[in-house]
Automatic annotation (TrEMBL):
Membrane recorded as keyword: yes
Entry-linked Gene3D superfamilies: P-loop containing nucleotide triphosphate hydrolases
Pfam family name, one: FtsK_SpoIIIE
Family annotation (InterPro entries): FtsK/SpoIIIE/SftA (IPR050206), FtsK_dom (IPR002543), P-loop_NTPase (IPR027417)
Domain FtsK: 219-409
Binding site for ATP: 246-253
Source organism of the structure: Planomonospora alba
Transmembrane segments: 33-53, 60-85
Name of the featured protein: FtsK/SpoIIIE domain-containing protein
Lineage: superkingdom: Bacteria
Keywords (A to Z) from UniProt: ATP-binding, Membrane, Nucleotide-binding, Transmembrane, Transmembrane helix
This protein's record includes keyword Transmembrane: yes
Length: 473
């Protein structure tokens, strides 16, 4: 009787031997071969149609020569291949940008989809814990499409039903290493669909020299560097307050100086004023003539801030009931109060009375100054709790290189690091990482990576000389 085992129906089985293994074999329903073949062929055809639809150029590059070889022989195929190559090659050599936009990135996307993402998708999803096994079935997030830009692969993916963005944000390191990238950023494109950004190279690895002095008179948004996607980084300074936080040597100076540089034409014409607070006596003193008002000692800084508050309040009285938005004019210029190392004046200030005066003046400026044309741009080394009160007064924040991962969310807000703002991973080698930062733009919760242009001492000297010449003229 036991020879029939395992698997046969063994109802009523009686055995006197303890520990006898009784195995039940599940009923097997045999699917007719024709149904299996139809399903298989259907899947192949659907896959082919999808591939042609999504990657027409890559498919044509492979399919046309193969078809011509088969139909007419390899000589004709060679000719057919040579004709487009003789057009495409010069195009690629002499106008790389348009070639890439039309053909290059599409071919690369096809290659990256097949070679990197499809090949490793199942394994990475399973090992990172993003795939699920339930009721005997594997549920794997759906890889929708891959697009390539000059610096990154943009992978669109459908989450599994019931998954949250945080499930993915918590696994950015698994994803990055799984797909051979140094980092990964997660953003939501629509309900249930994510865009994963895998950089292939770092477009911000090389320092950016100081940008040319703008020709137009403008108070912003001012161009101060480049974004990772190659577009200019424009920072809003009029109508907001900006805090740039970064460890020592992170390049806070390059942000302050790039903003100053971009505002120089507005300062020349009198529609903007720069007020400098330089408690470290190192950063702003170099370009002292550019500042309408300048202070270094804490007592002078307190006086200067009090004066700014007084002027702001007078202007608010003048505007009351007349206008709600500030338009910079020579009569009512935009005043940008620039503070290098704001914690020197607040958290680290030993004179209590002075500390309270400065904190109160800064709080008044940052809470009431926006609408009447007073802005504060402050640099800060340590964004931790003792300077928290100051931090929260600034609507716009920039995270340069930070020492600890927890500091990223302190600067950019909750969840910023999970979404890829790895400010604690920015290189401490000045050449590679100084001036590199993460910012959150108003329109999107997703942080973007940027690099400020480096305004050298020579650039500042030139700016001062030019400024003085212009004033003398
Ligand atoms: N945008 C930049 N691109 C390239 N190199 C830069 C950039 N900004 C700064 N550096 C380099 O990094 C060094 C440190 O920069 P900087 O003094 O601005 O840092 P910091 O954040 O102000 O430091 P600290 O808080 O100690 O004053 C500079 O001497 C310069 O060589």
């Amino acid at each position: 009787m036991f020879k029939k085992l395992p698997g046969d129906q063994v109802t009523g089985l009686v055995t006197t031997t303890p520990d006898t293994a009784v195995v039940f074999r599940p009923a097997v329903v045999r699917t007719p071969a024709i149904i299996t073949i139809v399903i298989f062929v259907w899947r192949v055809l659907a896959g082919l149609v999808r591939m042609v639809w999504r990657h027409p150029i890559a498919t044509a590059v492979l399919a046309i020569p193969a078809a011509v070889t088969w139909l007419y022989g390899w000589r004709v195929a060679l000719l057919v291949v040579w004709l487009p190559v003789s057009v495409l090659l010069p195009w690629a050599l002499f106008d790389r940008a348009t070639f890439n936009a039309w053909i290059g990135w599409r071919l690369l996307a096809f290659w990256r989809l097949a070679w990197m993402y499809r090949r490793h998708w199942h394994a990475v999803m399973t090992i990172s814990g993003l795939a699920r096994h339930a009721g005997g079935r594997d549920y794997v997030p759906h890889l929708v499409a891959v697009r390539c830009t000059s610096w990154a692969d943009l992978v669109t993916v459908n989450m599994l039903t019931g998954q949250a963005v945080k499930d993915w944000a918590d696994r950015i390191e698994h994803l990055a290493h799984g797909f051979g990238a140094t980092s990964c950023r997660v953003s939501v494109t629509r309900a249930g669909r994510l865009l994963l950004t895998f950089p292939r190279r770092d477009p911000l690895a090389v320092p950016l020299p100081a940008l040319p002095l703008p020709e137009a008179v403008s108070v912003g948004p001012v161009e101060i560097g480049i974004r990772e996607d190659g577009r200019p980084w424009r920072l809003k300074v009029h109508g907001t307050h900006v805090l740039a936080a970064g460890a020592t040597g992170a390049g806070k100076g390059s942000i302050l100086w790039s903003v100053i540089r971009a505002l120089i034409p507005a300062v020349w014409t009198g529609v903007a004023e720069l007020w400098g607070l330089d408690p470290k006596l190192m950063e702003l003193s170099f370009g002292r003539p550019l500042f309408t008002r300048y202070a270094a000692s804490p007592a002078d800084c307190a006086d200067l801030l009090d004066e700014a508050v007084e002027r702001m309040q007078k202007r608010a009285e003048k505007f009351a009931g007349v206008q709600r938005d500030h338009v910079p004019t020579v009569e009512d210029p935009f005043v940008l109060v620039i503070v290098d190392e704001v914690a020197f004046l607040t958290a680290y200030q030993s004179d209590r009375a002075l500390k309270q005066r400065i904190s109160a003046a800064l709080a008044t400026l940052t809470t009431q100054g926006r609408a009447v044309g007073f802005g504060v741009l402050a640099a800060l080394q340590d964004p931790r709790k003792d300077v928290l009160t100051i931090r929260n007064l600034f609507p716009d924040k920039i995270a340069l290189r930070l020492d600890e991962s927890e500091q990223v969310d302190m600067v950019l807000g909750d969840g910023a690091r999970d979404r890829g703002a790895l400010a604690d991973h920015i290189s401490s080698v000045p050449q590679e990482g100084a001036g590199v930062a993460y910012v959150r733009l108003e329109a999107s919760p997703d942080p973007i990576r940027v690099r400020a242009a480096y305004v050298s001492d020579a650039d500042i000297r030139d700016m001062v000389a030019l400024f003085q010449m212009e004033e003398a003229a």
